[in-house]
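Batch queue: ligand-bound targets. Current item pairs a single chain with flavin-adenine dinucleotide. No template structures supplied; prediction is de novo from sequence plus SMILES. Inputs echoed for audit trail.
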Amino acid sequence: MLYDVVVVGGGIAGLMAAIEARSSNNKVALITKGNLFKSNSSMASGGINAVLDYGDSDAIDKHIEDTLKGSYGLGDAKSIATLCKHAPRIIQKLSYYGVEFDRDKEGKIAQRSFGGGSSKRTCFIGDKTGSAITQALIKKAKSVGVTFLVNTFVMNLTYTGKRVSGVIALRRFDSSVVVYLAKAIILAGGGYAGIYRGYSTNSPDYSGDMHALALRAGLALQDMEFVQFHPTGFVKTSYLVSEAARGEGGYLINSEGDRFVDELGTRDVVSRAISKEMAEGKEVFIDLRHLSQEHIEQKLPSLYKSAYHQAGIDITKELLPIKPVAHYSMGGIQTTMTKTSLHGLFVCGECASNGVHGANRLGGNSLLEASVFGELAGIEARNFIRNKELMTIDYNQVIKEIELVDKIFDQETGKNFNAIRVSLGKMMFEKVGITRNEENLTDAFSYLKYLRSEVKSLHCVNKERTNNVELISILELRNALEVAEAVVLSAQKRTESRGAHYRSDYKDMRSDMAFPMVVTEFKPNFFRVGFEKNRFIDNLRKFIKG
Ligand SMILES: Cc1cc2nc3c(=O)[nH]c(=O)nc-3n(C[C@H](O)[C@H](O)[C@H](O)COP(=O)(O)OP(=O)(O)OC[C@H]3O[C@@H](n4cnc5c(N)ncnc54)[C@H](O)[C@@H]3O)c2cc1C
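Prediction returned. Tokens below.
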């Protein structure tokens, strides 16, 4: 199957990219591994950051400054300036595509506070911001003629020399391996916080497929140790209590009834404060009882319903127990804006590491990143394909994937993939979670080596090739283990505390470590990990001078 541009991912980044990449004389396909409405983007609730007035350069500078500050010295000034300067236009574009942002009494787009922001700049649609934007973009993408290839799991990239040539994918409905040839590929496949299964707001399928396939294609991963823990998930189900709940005035209190932290502080600070309370044996709750029922129903409708259905709690009258949960991965495939070291390959959204977030992310900045850099990736891909021919495919690469699928089907196993998946999540939360130290990281590394040897002998119990759920889960698990190892090795090497990476054995931030950490795979399953000392620094100097 031949396309001009193939986009992997149907979240906001992928949809924005596909819309921009499409023109009247090119063919654009967008691939998702599940259905089109299933993505972290469609679960995003709280909002999207933007200064709305183009002319208000002071307010835009403040957005840049907050984002740089939140990155703890690892932000790339150029990427951050691009993010914040394009924000007013992106909100207008989304409105034009049919997104109906909530309005204030004067009819202007309403804005709320979000953690780490120095002013109210988060635009929203109740607490359904992500799903409202996703739906509008799906409509727009359909109307411009993007082809959707759903239930298609991308396994690997194909490339010739330094030029990408297509993707190898597995069709869920018949487990066949197919190749999509394209002149340019855009990866927008989301993050890896789902490797913390059972302790994550992400759907478990967000466990780093893109990162693992990028490693296998010789690309570098960057900032992998930085995983953001959101302070407030439901204790039982890890369902996200959006920052909007605190933005609207919710308090955090412990079982002694005390408020113990500034609720609107950055997520790392608030998460650590909650874990400390919990380590002392106290429970932690979000208290919304002082807000009126009408206010809650209007501003936090999903939370109101979910608390009732999932935890049996009426938040207008009762305290809601919460715990911190893995939420967002700052690390990703190393990019310069959206470009990578493979020609024709562009990366955007949560799976990219372009220096927008550095060591931490401000709430509301990732939907903005997905929109701004998704749009840019689409433009870059459209420009790239001009006068380009399709490349040939190395069919040895395809045969390897067919053999892998056959092997997973054909042999027998006594092992259960789900048990391994669950124990990976628990181990990562306990040993590579909110607080890390050398002993735990060393244990984590040994355990991962053991799980990786176990996974080699995982096979499908159910041999039916139609809609086989096990097959994709096994492939995801292989990727998740590879990505987990990159996280652990990076966390080990960073012997300091910075942003979301907190080490109880190295509590201070070190000036000699103010550089991104980069992971590459030099032969299958062997990683090289180190600081990249020249990256971003010139940029930052220019920004500080200018
Ligand atoms: C519960 C929750 C609430 C959030 N709230 C906010 C918020 O209020 N504000 C904010 O700024 N951010 C928020 N975030 C973060 C934000 O939603 C994400 O960072 C952002 O949506 C990522 O968008 P994306 O397009 O990069 O990827 P995603 O939306 O994660 O989409 C990834 C896509 O890639 C596809 N894919 C993945 N792997 C494969 C594969 N192997 N083959 C084929 N397809 C594949 C998936 O099918 C999916 O379509 C929230 C996140 C969560 C989980």
